Amino acid sequence: MAEITISAVTKSFAQDRVVLDHVSFQVDAGERVGLLGGNGAGKTTLLKILTGEVQPDSGSATVARGRRMGYVAQLNRFSSENTVEDVLAGAYARVREISRQLDRAHADMSALSPAQYDALEREFQALGGYDWQTDLNKIAAGLQIGPDMRARRFSELSGGEQTRVCLARLIMEKTDVLLLDEPTNHLDMASLEWLEDYLVHFKGAVLVVSHDRYFLDVVVDRIVELENGRAEFYSGNYSFYAREKELRYQQRMLQYEKEQAKIKQLEFQIARLKAWGSVYDNPALHKRAASMEKRIERTRQTDRPTRESRLEMDFSSEAFRADRVLRVENLAKAYDGRTLFSGVTAEIRGGGEKVALLGGNGAGKTTFLKILLGQEAADAGSAVFGPSVKVAYLPQVVTFEHPERTLYDTLLYEGGCDPQQARDRLGAFRFRGEDQFKTVSQLSGGERARLRLCLIMLSRANLLILDEPTNHLDLASREWIEEAVSHFQGTLLFVSHDRYFVRRFANRVWEIDGGAFTDYPGDYERYRRVKAMNALKPQAPAPAQKQEPAPQKKSGRGPKNERRLNALEREIVKREQELAAFDARMEAAASDYVKLNEILAEKAAAQEEIDELYAQWEAAAEAMGENE
Questions:
Q1: Which domain holds residue 444?
Q2: String of DSSP letters for 25-43
Q3: pLDDT band per the 50, 70, 90 thresholds, residue 561
C-alpha cells in the first residue's frame, strides 16, 4: 500500500527556474527511500510540499489517509521556556493526560463511569502508557541526550543539539511516515548506529535526504535522484546507485556515440546527393536529400550525457627515507578536570599507512591532532615526527591568511606557481573561467577545502592530516575530496565521522573512548567486528569478599603473548601494504587478460593469508582478555 504518493509534481522559483518537473513516485509501507540530488535539486522543496509548507505549481503530494506523518524541521518550534525534558515528554502528552484522569478516578470514584474508565484504560494500554518513561529514556540514551542536556532549556541548545532532540521527539511520537532531512548531522558514531538500527526495524515508510553514504547503504532499499527537475530511480542502496549510475552513463554515452556516427554518415550522404543534384540538375536527388535530413532529426534522440570531470592530477610528495613516521609516547591531556586521554603510546612506521582516529563527540580527537602539530601543549608525554616527514594539515574549518586575494593570486603567492600553472591547476580542481578571479572570501566551506587541497598538492607533503574533511559537504563534493585523497601515496592520519570515507581509506584505526586510547590493526569493518566481539565478552565480576587465596591461574598477558600479538600486528601491516601494491600491477596489466588473471589469483591468495593472520590476532587478543 502506498503511504506517500508524489504525482506529476512541478515547482518553479524565480527567473523561471524549474526545480521539479512532473516528478512522480510512491513510497510503500515498510520502504525506506533515499532522496538524492545536488544542491538546489529540489530535495527539501519536495519534503516541504509533502508537509504542506510549500504548494506545488501543479500535481500533488499526499500521505495516505489516517497516517501520521513526522518531519524534523516541523518540530523545531518550541517555547523558549521549554526544557529538553518538556520537549521529549510532549510526545507522550495524550498518555500523560490519560494517566492524570485515571489517577483522579482512583481518588474520586465518581469522576468517571465504569465504561469511561474501561475505555481510558484500554487506550492507555494501546498507547504503551505503562512503558512511556522507559521508551523516553531508551531513545534519549540512544541519541546521546543525557541528563544534563535534558535539564537545559531547548532554546539554549546548539542547532545540532536541537535537531537531535527533535529527532528523538519524532521517534517517540511513533508516526507512520517519517520525512528526514539530513538526520545524521551532528550525530556521533554510536548515535548513528542506534538510529540506523531503529530505521531498519521501522514498520512505516521513510523518505530520507542524506549525504551520509554509509547510512544510506545500511538503511535505504531504494534511491530516487532528482536531477535537472526529473526523477531517476535506482532499486538498491547507495553502493548500488553509484555503480548503476556509472553504468547508465556509459550506456547513454554509447547510444549517443552510435547516433552521432549515424548522423555523420547521413550528413555525408546528404552532402553528396545535393552536389550530384546540382551537377546533374536532378530535383529527385534534392528531394532524397531533404528526406534524409528529416531522418537525421528522427535519429537525434539522445542528448550527450554529462558528469563531473575526474581529477586530472596526482599529489606530488617528498620521498620518505626513514623507518618511523610518527612516535607518540605517554601522551596525556585533560580539560577542566576531565581526562581526554592519558598514557597514549603509539607509532606509525613506514610510509603509506592510512590511520583513522575515531571517537565520540568531545572525546579529544581534534585536540590530539593539534598536539601532534604543535598547536596545543600536552600535559605529559611527547609526539615526534620522523626526520624526513613533511606534514600537510586540512582542518575542519579552512581559513586563509589573505582572504581578499583571488584564487589565481593565491596560487601565485602561496603556491609558488607561474601564471599558466596557476590557471591549469585551478582548472584541474574545477575552478574554471571567471571562478578563478573570485576572492577567497567568496568561497563556500567546501570550495575553501578544495582550494586548500590544491595548495597541499603543491607542498610535496608525505604525511597528510585531515580533520573531518567531508563535514557538511554534499555528495558530489565528498566524492571529489575522496578522489583527490585517493591520489595521495604518502601516510594519512584523519579524523572523520563519515564512515564511508573511513571504510574506503583506513587500514588501521586509533580510537579515543572515555579517556582510553586503543590501536586496532585492520580496516574499519574489522574494527567494528572486534568491537562487537569485545562488547559480548562478560564483564569482570565485582571483587568478592576476602577468602583463602586460590591457586594462581596462568595469565595470558605474559611477555611471550605480548610479543606474539605485536609480531602479528606488524606482519598484518606489512601484508596490507603489499596487498595495496597489487592494484598498481592490475592497472598496468589491464590490457593483458592472462596476466591480469594471474595477478588476481595472487591477490586472492594474499588476501586469504591476511585473513588468517587477522584470525590469529583476534584469537590471541581474545585469549589475553579471557585470562586477565
A1: 324-536
A2: EEEETT-EEEEE--TTSSH
A3: low
Running DSSP on this structure, what letter comes out for residue 552? P
Q: Where are the beta strands (DSSP E) in 531-601?
A: none
| Residue 549 domain-assigned (yes or no) | no
Looking at the fold, whether 22 and 85 belong to one and the same domain comes out as yes
Residue 545: pLDDT band with limits 50, 70, 90: very low
Does residue 570 carry a pLDDT above 90?
Answer: no
pLDDT at position 583 is 65
Residue 548 above 50 pLDDT? no
Are residues 268 and 234 both part of a single domain?
no
Query: Mean pLDDT over residues 489-507, rounded?
Result: 91
Q: Who wins on pLDDT, 396 or 381?
A: 381
Give the sign of the dihedral formed by CA 619, CA 621, CA 622, CA 623.
positive
- Please write the tens of the pLDDT for every residue from 106-125: 777 777 788 888 888 888 88
Same domain, 80 and 220: yes
Q: What is the pTM of this model?
A: 0.71
Mean pLDDT, to the nearest integer, of 169-187? 87
Is the CA virtual torsion 490, 491, 495, 501 positive or negative? positive
299, 314, 332 — which closes off a domain? 299
Question: Does the pLDDT value for residue 238 go beyond 60?
Answer: yes
Work out the angle between the directed axes of helices 159-172 and 189-200 (0-180°, nearest 10).
30
**Which CATH number characterizes residue 337's domain?**
3.40.50.300
- The C-alpha cell 586575494 sits at 405
Read off the C-alpha cell for 235.
Answer: 532499486
Residue 312 located in a structural domain: no
Scanning the structure block, which residue is given the C-alpha cell 535519429?
299
Greater confidence, 105 or 11? 11
Residue 215 has φ and ψ, to the nearest 5°, of -55, -45
Alpha-carbon distance of 371 to 382, in angstroms, equals 9
Instruction: For residue 332, give the nearest of 323, 341, 345, 320 by alpha carbon.
Output: 341
Task: Tell me, yes or no, whether 475 lies in a domain.
Answer: yes
143 and 278, same domain (yes or no): no
Rg of the chain over Cα atoms, rounded to whole angstroms, equals 31
Number of H helices, E strands in the chain: 21, 18
Could you write out the DSSP letters of every residue in 186-242? T--HHHHHHHHHHHHT--SEEEEE---HHHHHHH-SEEEEEETTEEEEESS-HHHHH
Claim to verify: residue 254 and residue 234 sit in the same structural domain: no
Q: What angle do CA 164, 169, 171 make, to 5 degrees?
A: 95
Instruction: Provide the pLDDT confidence category of residue 495 given band limits of 50, 70 and 90.
Output: very high
Q: Render 124-159 in DSSP notation, one character per residue.
A: HHHTTGGGHHHHHHHHHHHTT--HHHHHSBGGGS-H
**Does one domain contain both 367 and 344?**
yes
Provide the number of structural domains found in the chain. 4
Q: Specify whether the CB–CB gap between 302 and 255 falls below 8 A.
A: yes
Predicted pLDDT at 311 = 55
Please tell me whether residues 366 and 458 are part of one structural domain.
Answer: yes
Dihedrals phi, psi of 57, to nearest 5 degrees? -70, -35
- 519 and 372 in a single domain? The answer is yes
547 found inside a domain: no
Instruction: Please tell me the distance from the alpha carbon of residue 274 to that of residue 283, in angstroms, as a whole number.
Output: 9
